[in-house]
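Input/output pair, single chain:
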Amino acid sequence: MTRFLSILLLIASAASANAANWPWQDSPVEQADYCKGFVASGLSSSQSAGTSRTALWLAWNYLLRSTSVGKSYESDEFHAGQAQFTTLLDSADVTSILSDTDGTCGLGRSGRQITGW
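Output:
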């Protein structure tokens, strides 16, 4: 009887573990060209320095590794990303922009910078 009960308990726990939504199982939908424009605009800004600039370079490296090579600088999404960073830069500094975009486009502590190979 105890064997049957333990098997039933094991099956129930395995089913609930598969139903759980773990953070690393969700792959966020990112627009690669938009992200490239956003990060490139941040790198070209003279206001980004220190750790903010390092975070932007890490994000740029992540984007280059995880996307295909092409002429993304000609796309509308690329220009939209550039415009978004420029617009945000008018109202805030680079550090606050990067903290607001934490986890997107390879920025912040999302873990994808390391596992995005």
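The mean pLDDT is 75. DSSP finds six helices and no strands in the chain.
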